[in-house]
Amino acid sequence: MMAAGLVIFAEYWLMVGAVVALxxxxxxxxxxxxxxxxxxxxxxxxVPGVLLIWPMVLWRWYALETGRADEAKRYKAxxxxxxxxxxxxAIAIGVIIATGLSIKQTWPAHIAPELLSExxx
Amino acid sequence: xxxxxxxxxxxxxxxxxxxxxSFLIGIGIGLILLMAGVGLGIGATQDDPGNGAFRGDYGxxxxxxxxxxxxxxxxxxxxxxxxVPEGHTLMLSAGGKQSLMSRVxxxxxxxxxxxxxxxxxxxxxxxxxxxxxxxISRAEGDAPEMDSEDLGRWRIAGxxxxxxxxxxxxxxxxxxxHKACANLCLIGDIPPVFVSTxxxxxxxxxxxxxxxxxxxxxxxxxxxxxxxxxxxKVVRHGDLLVFHLEPDTAELVQ
Lengths: 121, 254
Known about the structure:
The structure holds 2 protein chains of 2 kinds. By secondary structure, chain A is mostly helical. Chain A has 3 helices and 1 strand, in the order H-H-H-E. In chain A, helix 1 crosses helix 2. Chain B folds into 2 domains: 53-138, CATH 2.40.50; 149-252, no CATH class. Chain B has 6 helices and 12 strands. In chain B, strand 5 (111-121) and strand 6 form a beta hairpin. The interface between A and B is medium-sized, with 22 and 27 residues.
């Protein structure tokens, strides 16, 4: 059930991403990046990325269109988070491995086959 | 700023400054030891993948026998080869994650000759049949009557795998890490196999079918690769046991 839910979620995520990619790569990118105007060959290369991170694409499109984007502040903020993210990821890897090992099933070698009923019963 | 001038500064393409050399050596050795330790730790916690493999070294094997659709195709061997003895019940698959079912639909109960490569994991084996008429064809003669024996209803514990990877197409062919691959094989109608914790009537490996002798039900895909306890009828077809698995009775075991 969980697995099926994840697959359905992924399908809808990618479908929305495809719609965003269609509009962003045909309309949006020309409006927010003057260097992209008149350049088309590279655009299909962006499709896989847009499919995955379409919320960020929409947010950046909105921020640049409305003039809310402060590039200098944005990059400073990212650099400032490097240390925290590096330590956080290192801890997360350890936690993920430990969690995986702790919930790993043990081969139930002690359970013997049990005959519930003879043939024909 | 004046203080920074005297601080050692690492530049990749220049000799490491004196003040940083011991630090860099320490970090380097530490990382090597850490990675080796992590690799050793992860490796040590993994299950033994077993000795299953494609036995290309056997050469192509050709046997004759009676085709049985359980519904997964098996051959009850009447004329064996160097590595497939007479009397053996041999599971069959096509190349990759494809089954033979579409090619053997009209051959149930017929005497056939099959040819291909053997996958072997001790008590468990399977033949990956060649393509076209070279792989499977009707044989001359009448097919002898083959009987099967109902062994009753059992509750057994273990793991559902796909028979091809388990027999040697993949290593490991078991476990959670292999679940997606196993399910893709089962979607392709590769014969599923139940690995029992202890032998059932002498067999640790049982071919799995649905509760009414149908193909493995889609509703049971979630059970693949988990350690479960489950009920079902067991039927002996030659030296192969067929487990009529009832998904509704399955329980996860710890």
